[in-house]
Hints:
Blueprint lengths: L5 H6 L7 E4 L3 E5 L9 E5 L11 H22 L3 E5 L15 E6 L19 H13 L2
Antiparallel strand pairs: 1-2, 2-3, 3-5, 4-5
The structure holds 2'-deoxyguanosine-5'-monophosphate.
Amino acid sequence: MSEETIFTQIVAGEIPSHTVYEDETTYAFLDVNPLAPGHTLVIPKEPYERLNDMPTDLIGDVFETTGQIAEAVENAVDAPATTIAINNGEAAGQEVPHVHVHIVPQFEDGTAKPIHTLFDGVDLADDELAQIAEAIRSNQ
Ligand code: DGP
């Protein structure tokens, strides 16, 4: 776990933020560079760098808060849907080394983009899929 991050400073009130929710283990606030009105970040208060590093009960807490706040965000900005995403590791574009779930409202105005637009996609044969699935099973 990292000692201190910009987000632990936000939780401690050392850096101002537009906080929308707080409980014992989780915290939610507006993203300073919003991708859409209502773009919110949900974090564990403890600064785990990646989702993979977190204890499962804390992952549960973060996703419980995420579900609750996604509903509130959609209602607040009158969005019919949200994209919920984690950049899980530096190579995935994670800039702040403290797990954060992005809740980004999407609207029915022609601007909505599914996450599939982020990737070019790959063609994999069924035997390759089987091999990958086996590798994932044996790495748990
Ligand atoms: P990521 O690329 O997934 O690591 O996203 C980091 C997000 O954190 C980015 O959308 C901007 C946001 N962010 C960075 N610093 C601050 C800050 O000091 N305050 C707030 N509210 N958001 C921040």
